[in-house]
Amino acid sequence: MPRKTIRICTGLLFAIAFTAQAEQFDYPETNPFMATVAGTPNELKVPVPDEVDVQQGDLAVRVLPDRKLPPALSNYRDLHFRVAWHDEPAPLIFLIAGTGSGYDSSRMDYLKRLFWQAGMHVIVLSSPTNHDFIAAASNSGMPGMGAEDARDLHTAMSMALDKAQDEKGFEVTEYRLAGFSLGALNAAFVAELDTHLGQFNFSKVLLLNPPVDLYASVGRLDDLSYTRIPGVSDNDSFYEHIFQKLSRHFAQRGNSDIQANLFYEIQNSPEALSDPELAMLVGAVFRFSAADLSFMSDLINHGGRYVPADKELKVSTSLTPYLRRALFCDFSCYINTQLWPAWEALNAGRTIDEMAYETSLRSLQAFLHDSPNIAAVSNADDLILTQNDYRFLADTFGERAYLYPHGGHGGNLDYPQVAERYMDFLQGDAQ
Amino acid sequence: MNPVYWISGLFGCIFFTGTVLADAPNEYVNYSDSGHELDFPAYHDPLDELDIDKSETRYQFERSSLRALNVQDPLEGMNRRIYRFNAQFDQHVYLPVVRTYVWATPKVARKGVSNFFNNLKDIPHLGNSLLQGKFQRSAETTARLLFNSILGIGGIFDVANSMGLPQQPEDFGQTLGVYGVPPGPYLVIPFLGPSSLRDGTGKVVDWAIEDNVNYMNNRDFMNDYQATWGIWAIDLRYQTPFRYGALDSPFEYDQVRYLYTKLREFQVDN
């Protein structure tokens, strides 16, 4: 009897131990805020080549010939993008940046090198919500609608590809598509659009930390900027609070030589930033993006919200007064005061929830569920997802939902266990 | 045989599996199209632990950011023009030259060049550490100068850094700051970028210190071989990580102005 029990017991233990072993996820940063802000520690990242060793260049195309921009913003007349290419024929992947980031952001540069290293040509584009894209390539000048942004992106992609092939003369064997964060939602809409246009026929589409319901996700990010921080009263500046921490850290450390891993050093010191402080940092960065977006969109549409319609912005004109005003508009404010009135004017009688649905992945549910060439990567603690959003990803993508227990918003994308799996998907034969 | 063993065995078994199960995350089970089970890690909402202000007067972000925009900048119009000029010079001339330099030379050579010029800068660093009464730092910088100039062959190798003596920059702008001189109006200097009246003046003084000390006769040598000034200028940009456009904002000028001002406050305090 006891022997039998022991045998069953050991068997059971082994079975559990084995599954635990097989499924074990060992990404070291379990704090979602830390992961979001700092990503994977350098020594644990998938190694990629140095920037100087990548065959790459920045190019520009004029997407909207009729767009008028004031001198202060004249460098955004052309849409700039980055291309990394190989001399041999290879698959080309388009990569779309996340909310308020450009084609040259460090996350894009990392992914670019990862894809390039795996043998792909890469074209990186700014997010349609980034100020340069709004100015140079957004027809409405008012990004945030899934289908319209997809049309703008699709056009920009075609033009960028022509330009890159003209200038660099590389050959493309097939097309792939990837996006991060809002760029992932954009990628899903572009992929769907392309099935009607039949231009790229993407062999693989990779959604890295997509939002599901865009407006809900930006609401969550807005919320981060309202985080209450112990020790910061109603009269204190949050930035001063952070700088004081840094200052105390350096005073204690004795010299001010700034190391590459400064952030980890601080997080291991008594002056480590707390979760509310990290959350506020993420929220603040996002609020600045929202201010940029609201300002640019209003300027292109001559809304007069910030810059009077008859005022010309010269190179020497101070933009500070406009930034002061735009800072008050968070992303939800942009949706409610700019996007919604414009949409309502064209869709009389419909509700804001219907507008939100049209720009959520839910409106593409059948397409995403039935397309074996589309996969999504996300985390159970991604800041931008609600529980329902998370379930939507699991239900819709099933085996193609690569969901990890922790990593915050995109913190583990450069971690081997995560990156190898999505790279296998991109490179694999399964269509 | 003995029921006690049996029961204790069972207990142990439950206890062990219980522990193991408790460690495993509470997973969200789903089914694939082909019907087999898919395990997903359980969702957890990071925002739950935060105290999010829902009041009408939740202005923490606005209050902090508006204050950050209060920088004394009476010459803003001119500064913005120079800022734009610098950005274009950087994009069309400076960076392409630096890229060619990177393409044409091995990393170890570039490192040697940077070390060499950095070693020369330890002369004003030392002078300013002394002026600020930072005697330990002065001693460390003196040691750096000796080790690097002798063992590091005229500064080509930063041996002091490997010995635990990292470079500790101190410029005359900081020295003035330590004695209570305010930064004064913000200035954007052609080619060099963000500065202030105080720090711009400091740069001139530091330059004069380097000129007068003429450490290892470097100034004489560089004036005799003018091409070395070109290398100096290329290395200056090579060592500066800042890229125009990297802040991804139409308000880059405002953000750089704030960050520069904070950085300098910070350097004066440390």
From TrEMBL, chain A:
Signal peptide as annotated in the record: 1-22
- Its domain of life reads Bacteria
Q: Which GO terms describe its molecular function?
A: protein serine/threonine kinase activity
Query: Where would one find coiled-coil regions in this protein?
Result: none
Q: Which UniProt keywords apply?
A: Kinase, Serine/threonine-protein kinase, Signal, Transferase
* InterPro entries in the cross-refs: AB_hydrolase_fold (IPR029058), MlaA (IPR007428)
Entry's PANTHER family? AB HYDROLASE-1 DOMAIN-CONTAINING PROTEIN, LIPOPROTEIN VACJ-RELATED
Q: What is this protein called?
A: Serine/threonine protein kinase
**Source organism per UniProt:** Pseudomonas neustonica
From TrEMBL, chain B:
InterPro entries reported in the protein's UniProt record:
MlaA
Organism encoding this protein:
Pseudomonas neustonica
Q: Does the keyword Signal apply?
A: yes
One Pfam match, given by its short name, reads MlaA
Higher taxonomy: Bacteria, Pseudomonadati, Pseudomonadota, Gammaproteobacteria, Pseudomonadales
**Keywords attached to this entry:** Lipoprotein, Signal
Q: Which domain of life is it from?
A: Bacteria
Family, according to the entry, reads as follows: Belongs to the MlaA family.
Please report the name of this protein according to its UniProt entry: VacJ family lipoprotein
**Matches recorded under PANTHER family:** INTERMEMBRANE PHOSPHOLIPID TRANSPORT SYSTEM LIPOPROTEIN MLAA, LIPOPROTEIN VACJ-RELATED
